[in-house]
Automatic annotation (TrEMBL):
This is Uncharacterized protein. Keywords: Membrane, Transmembrane, Transmembrane helix. The chain crosses the membrane at residues 23-44, 73-98, 110-130, 136-158. It comes from Antrihabitans spumae. The keyword Transmembrane helix applies.
Length: 174
């Protein structure tokens, strides 16, 4: 079998990039824990959320007749929408992580930006500024901190010397 010498084999994935990919799986996993904690918090507060929504809607349009049951149904629909959006975001993050593992520079850049955002958003939890008043808030804060640590580690790994060479190989091939 004759091979094309101009078509070089792609370089193997460096250990740092493979480890960063695994760390991103952890980030996404703790994102789902965060999502479940948020949904549990919303479920616990569903009556007060429904009451507030009913007050807001009635203040805007007093002629609109809504019952408490219909407003609670809207709150449940909102919770379902939050769950679906969270699952879609997680799936998209997995695809971006896979592309990063394949050596795509745009995926590395995007994951770096997302990771920096996760680290910044975890600072209030880390410093104790977002004091938990329920078990769900404690889970959300803990998941946020672990996500930030994993994301920071992944960012570090995908910007090391071997990782840089791996991501830049696509641009240096002739």
């Amino acid at each position: 079998m004759i091979t094309n010498p101009a078509k070089a084999e792609p370089a193997p994935v460096p250990v740092d990039v493979a480890t960063a990919y695994q760390l991103w799986w952890g980030v996404i996993g703790f994102g789902f824990v965060n999502l479940l904690g948020s949904l549990a918090l919303m479920f616990g507060e569903r009556s007060s959320l429904a009451e507030q929504l009913l007050k807001d809607v009635t203040a805007r349009d007093p002629n609109l007749k809504l019952t408490q049951d219909s407003v609670e149904l809207l709150v449940f629909a909102g919770m379902a929408l939050v769950a679906v959006i969270g699952l879609v975001v997680g799936a998209v993050a997995l695809v971006i992580g896979y592309q990063m593992r394949r050596g795509r520079q745009w995926a590395r850049t995007l994951l770096t930006m997302i990771g920096v955002l996760l680290v910044i958003l975890a600072v209030p939890n880390l410093l104790g500024l977002a004091a938990p008043d329920s078990a769900a808030m404690l889970v959300i804060g803990g998941a946020s901190i672990v996500q930030a640590v994993l994301a920071a580690g992944a960012i570090y790994l995908i910007h090391r010397k071997e990782s840089n060479a791996y991501f830049l190989q696509r641009f240096t091939r002739t």
